[in-house]
Amino acid sequence: MFTHGYVMSPICRPSRMAMLTGRYPHCNGVMGHGEQPPPGWQEPDVITPSLSKYLTERGYFTAAIFKHGREKGNVWDVQYHEWPNGTGYHDRNPDSFYKRTKSILSRAKDLGKPFFLYANPIDPHRPWVDTEEERRSFAIYNPDNPYPEPSRKYIPEEVHVPDFLPDLPEIRENLVPYYESLHRGDECIGVILKALEESGQMNNTLVIFLSDNGMGAPGAKGTLFHHGLRTPIIVRWPGEVEEGMVNDHSIISTIDIFPTLLDAIEAPPIEGIEGKSFIDLLLGKEQDKPREYAYAAQNYFIKPVEEDFFPHRAIIDMDFCYIWNAYVLQPNGDRKYPNHWLDVVESCLDGSHPELAEKINNLHHKPVEELYDLSLDPGCWKNLAESPEHKKILDSYRDRLFHEMESTMDPELKVFTGFMKDW
Questions:
Q1: Partners of 358 in the β-ladder
Q2: Are 115 and 60 in contact (CB under 8 A)?
Q3: What does residue 119 show for φ and ψ, rounded to 5 degrees?
């Protein structure tokens, strides 16, 4: 398991497409939800295939269970689609994941082909268990045939409150549905592995588990904070990866998965992608050029129009998280950044918790730069960007960001260059 894995974007679609292409969002053209690529997108000099297309061309049987309809350029022999808001009977149903996985593995075996399965349990994506949001979604999309309830119930005292939220009784209560949804998601993962084992292919299959973004709560998903980007990356590869190994000293970006898989199957590498293989780390060796940091980007949620366009970038490593909010420097830069999922904290915004209220306000109205000391402040509460003691550190992260933007033709490079001239 790698404890310092980071996604490329804190929302589903650009995060997943970055993983499936090994490329930054502004290089593969999937920079948000909705219209892709956005108007004015400049195609990179080197055009590369998606992972599923590459493997299909090399004789693999490829299949996707959910969360693939938003990604362009993929090729699937079998594909299952989820309903809106993940409300379909099969969408959060462990039994459905089990049966579909068995069917996919059986078809690949009958064809005599190796397989690539892209399996995506909807949980713990919103809506969470037994919430008003879930009831509204059922009423609109699937009033008659809901998916099953989770098999495990939680009480507030059992839940873990992450660092980006205060540990308050009301917040614990509001997180219970999340953990119940998470448990059902875990069950889906379990039955996928059960079907794999029953197929007789467990010991010659490489399995990678990760998330595509952080928890749907203010201060995580949709933000470039530590908890919006960090994901566990768990790898099972019998005979190759040492069982129980924990790597807590290497930084992995999810764009690194594509080239790593190509190395694992001894396929030719793809030139021009931003991802870096970490095959040596999997095999217990030293990496030739270890990744020093991860780069991340957020551009827009739904439509690439001015009122919904909020480009910002981040550089994150073991020590600090640096965020540059490009949109603040652009016309209407003082507009309110959308901060979803306030239901987790709204019962605490009655004036009795001023620090939380200030953080929520800062999520809506951002400064140009943010810098957080992750060793002391993993929840990203105290912005150090204007701290004189951190000026040299701030400059080093600016340099890293400039390097990534310049070398990959980031469309916000001109804005960043102008910003740096002012300093």
A1: none
A2: yes
A3: -105, 130
Torsion of CA 92, 98, 101, 103, to 10 degrees: -120
At residue 423, the pLDDT reads 66
Q: Is-contact 298 310, C-beta < 8 A?
A: yes
- Look-up: residue for tokens 């870096």? 276
Structure tokens at 198: 């029953």
Dihedral of CA 93/95/98/101: which sign? negative
Q: Reading across the β-sheet that carries 230-236, which strands appear in turn?
A: 207-209, 230-236, 2-6, 252-253
SS3 77: coil
Give the position of tokens 């994941």.
97
pLDDT of residue 35: 79
Q: Can you tell me the distance from the alpha carbon of 205 to that of 211, in angstroms, rounded to the nearest whole number?
A: 20
Q: b/e per residue, 263-282, with b = 16+ CB within 10 A? A: ebeeeeebeebbbbbbbebb
Please say whether the beta carbons of 291 and 251 come within 8 A: yes
Give the CA count within 13 Å in the CB-facing half-sphere of 162.
25
Tens of pLDDT, residues 46-57: 889 999 999 999
Question: Residue 84 — left, alpha, or beta (φ > 0 → left; ψ -120 to 50 → alpha)?
Answer: beta
Rounded distance, CA 160 to CA 411, Å? Answer: 39
What pLDDT digit, counting tens, does each position of 154-177 carry?
999 999 999 999 999 999 999 999
Tell me the whole-structure pTM to 2 decimals: 0.96
Query: Helix or strand or coil: residue 210?
Result: coil
Q: Which of 337, 341, 342, 313 is nearest to 400 (CA)?
A: 313
Exposed/middle/buried for 286, CB within 10 Å: 0-12, 13-18, 19+?
A: exposed
CA distance 87 to 17: 23
> Could you tell me the two tokens for 35?
């219209």
